[in-house]
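Board notes (copied after class):
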Amino acid sequence: PRYSRKQMTDLWTDEARFQLWLNVEIHALEQMVTLGLAPESALKNVLKKARFSAERILEIEKEVKHDVIAFITNISESIGADSRFFHLGMTSSDLIDTAFAVQLCQATDIILDDVKKLLVVTKQLALKHKNTICIGRSHGIHAEPTTFGLKVAGWYSELERQRERI
């Protein structure tokens, strides 16, 4: 928390992780209904009643020693008999890997948005200082004069390349 912004740390809380797990499970159940492998009434019940408590999941996990079983157990407490269709045909890895991929995409979106903002500021700084003379450096010593704007333009180009790589 000391070195992260709230927007980024919020993605990695237990609450956020379990919410993503629930979203993945709901999407999977929607497809099970589409394929005729689960009744639509089960989906409606899950959408209406599915709730979780991060504290309760962690409490259950201490007992069962398995994060996904703890999650499913807690969700099942809220949806009742239709819980037999929840997580149907899935493995723990199906759930965890899919949700983790979503978390990584969300984190990357934050980074890309920040880089976009930084590019705007860097471009403005390069233009502002295009004629501001400063000492050039070569092999750690003074070299030919250059402009601060040219140095910043180099940073801008490097940021643009890194944005493309991301």
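Comment from the instructor: The mean pLDDT is 95. DSSP finds seven helices and two strands in the chain.
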